[in-house]
């Protein structure tokens, strides 16, 4: 039997942007309203990606780790999902510094990442335009998705699958 590929992904972003909701949506196709914000978990998930069985390990960070722990998480991961909340400009401004930390931790390699603007169902409360998200993704040279962990709209699993592909391509 062919050995399946393993890909380690980590999800980063300000507390409350919906990291856990996105991961749970991806894994279960469901939305869980309240998820313990202090919980840090790693999930294993097998997916058939382009006819290849890939075992994904997904680290859902809690944002409470100290500098050393965070660096450890960043070293551990092969690919990164950077999440902001389209209704929270501060969370958007957190993304570029996070990317710098990733770069620092992965030096001299560059790690694949994807940018996700979550809570796209809350259009009425939007603070960050789609164009701004696209521009930031171009600056970070990564794929960009707007989605909703809540409704599953905007294909909430696509970022994880695409990141996996990107990791496998390297
Ligand atoms: P985390 O701290 O980044 O892991 O964020 P959580 O997954 O715990 O979500 C924080 C809050 O945002 C919770 O109350 C969720 O129900 C809510 N939330 C997460 N994703 C969405 C979304 O796509 N739309 C809406 N409306 N609320 C969301
Ligand atoms: Mg969480």
Structure description:
The protein is of the alpha/beta class and 170 residues long. The chain is 35% helix and 25% strand. The protein has six helices and six strands. It has a six-stranded mixed sheet with strand order 2-3-1-4-5-6, with helices on both faces. Helix 5 (130-140) links the parallel strand 5 and strand 6 (143-146). Helix 2 packs across helix 4. The protein is globular. The two termini are 24 Å apart. The model has no long low-confidence stretch (mean pLDDT 91). It binds guanosine-5'-diphosphate and magnesium ion (MG). Residues 13, 15-21, 33-35, 37, 118-119, 121-122, 148-150 line the site of guanosine-5'-diphosphate (GDP).
Features:
about 170 residues; alpha/beta; 6-stranded mixed β-sheet; 6 helices; globular; binds guanosine-5'-diphosphate; binds magnesium ion
Write the layout of secondary structure elements.
Elements: E1 5-12, H1 19-28, E2 41-49, E3 52-60, H2 67-76, E4 79-85, H3 89-93, H4 95-106, E5 113-118, H5 130-140, E6 143-146, H6 158-169
Parallel strand pairs: 1-3, 1-4, 4-5, 5-6
Antiparallel strand pairs: 2-3
Give a short synopsis of this structure:
This protein is of the alpha/beta class and 170 residues long. It contains six helices and six strands, in the order βαββαβααβαβα.
